[in-house]
Please model this.
Amino acid sequence: MSLSTIPQVLKGQKALVTGANSGIGRGIALALGQAGADVVVNYVASDEAAERVVEEIQHSGVQAYTHRADVSKPRSIRRPGARLKPTTPS
Model:
């Protein structure tokens, strides 16, 4: 099944993906967006790579934004999901 045919089973859901600017995290973030979830792209380095992932996710018609934080350091985490607007399931 290609990414373009993933059913929108996660429409209205929110997801935070750590390490989402590259590798496995990137793939997971893209798949969640394709499945209809709004996605927070969490990353530690490479603003440009994270922004590219956000743009790719937004092409799926969902919300996405970057959140730079090292999740291994709790003080760097500040409500990353707060910027995603609540949606009601259809």
Q: What stands out?
A: Residues 38 and 52 are 16 Å apart (CA to CA). The mean pLDDT is 85. Helices lie at 23-34, 47-58.
